[in-house]
């Protein structure tokens, strides 16, 4: 049991920067088929992690900067997007530093209205690392794979150039870490139900700027994004 606890704490210290909410954006899309958009998002938040019922790491503070590329698949109905960038985490006991993240997602408008649409946004983030970390004065090699899924749904109101959106959301995390001196261990968490709300505006239907707040029982974050469509 002690070996497993030590390994779990080490795993959290090495990979905790991937345990965090990231920017999702509106649950609906106004992009046309074949239209492209590029942009950037910034996020800042905290998250508590609990594994096995007796391991808890609190107040993980994360900042992330992600590049984003999107393309319209169906007029005002569906878009897909990719994201990539770095995240930095800080905690009283651990400071792993910057790590690279990549992912993809989709935005689907399920119900079209004049100014009020309904839809769903989902994104998948993958993190992989092969490196060394220090724990209790011992330098240990490890290999890590981690998957993070976020899904949000709800309405999006677009009166003129303004945007207001929000609704319920779920975050789901699962991963695996192989520590050279201790063996292989699962890194996972049950689905977390929460909510998000955001808003912003569009300029000449080319530049959109949005910001949002997300929260679950174990985490909170605020994020902002700017996207240029062409």
Spell out the key features of this protein:
ten-stranded antiparallel barrel; 70% strand; 230 residues; mainly beta; 1 helix; Lipocalin; 6% helix
Describe this structure in words.
The structure is a single chain. The protein has one helix at 2-15, and strands at 36-51, 55-74, 78-90, 99-111, 116-135, 138-157, 162-179, 183-203, 207-216, 219-229. The chain has a 10-stranded antiparallel β-barrel. It has a single domain, classed as Lipocalin (Beta Barrel), CATH 2.40.128. The longest helix is centred in the N-terminal third of the chain and has 14 residues, at 2-15. The chain is 6% helix and 70% strand. It is elongated and about 60 Å long. It is mostly beta strands and 230 residues long.
The separation of the N and C termini measures 56 Å
CATH topology: Lipocalin
Structural class: mainly beta
Rg over CA atoms, rounded to whole Å, is 19 Å
Major β-sheet profile: 10 strands, antiparallel, barrel
CATH class: Mainly Beta
Number of structural domains: 1
Would you report the number of β strands? 10
- List the total number of helices: 1
The average pLDDT value, as a whole number, equals: 81
CATH architecture: Beta Barrel
Strand content range: over 45%
Low-confidence stretches: 1-18
Q: In one word, what is the shape?
A: elongated
Helix-strand pattern: HEEEEEEEEEE
* Spatial strand arrangement across the major sheet: 1-2-3-4-5-6-7-8-9-10
Helix content: under 10%
């Amino acid at each position: 049991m002690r070996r497993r606890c030590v390994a779990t704490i080490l795993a959290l210290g090495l990979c905790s920067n991937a345990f965090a909410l990231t920017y999702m954006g509106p649950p609906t899309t106004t992009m046309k088929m074949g239209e492209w958009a590029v942009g950037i998002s910034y996020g800042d938040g905290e998250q508590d992690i609990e594994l096995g019922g007796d391991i808890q790491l609190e107040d993980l503070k994360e900042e992330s900067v992600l590049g984003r590329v999107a393309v319209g698949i169906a007029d005002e109905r569906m878009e897909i997007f990719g994201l990539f960038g770095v995240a930095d985490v800080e905690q009283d006991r651990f400071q792993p530093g910057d790590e690279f993240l990549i992912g993809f997602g989709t935005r689907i408008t399920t119900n079209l209205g004049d100014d009020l649409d309904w839809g769903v946004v989902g994104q998948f983030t993958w993190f992989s690392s092969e490196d060394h970390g220090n724990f209790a004065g011992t330098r240990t090699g490890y290999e890590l794979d981690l998957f993070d899924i976020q899904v949000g749904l709800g309405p999006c109101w677009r009166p003129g150039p303004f945007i207001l959106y929000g609704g319920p959301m779920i975050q789901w995390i699962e991963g695996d870490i192989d520590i050279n001196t201790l063996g292989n261990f699962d890194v996972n968490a049950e689905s977390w139900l929460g909510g998000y709300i955001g808003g912003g505006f569009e300029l000449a239907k080319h530049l959109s700027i949005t910001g949002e707040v997300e929260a679950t029982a174990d985490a909170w974050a605020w994020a902002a994004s700017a996207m240029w469509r062409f």
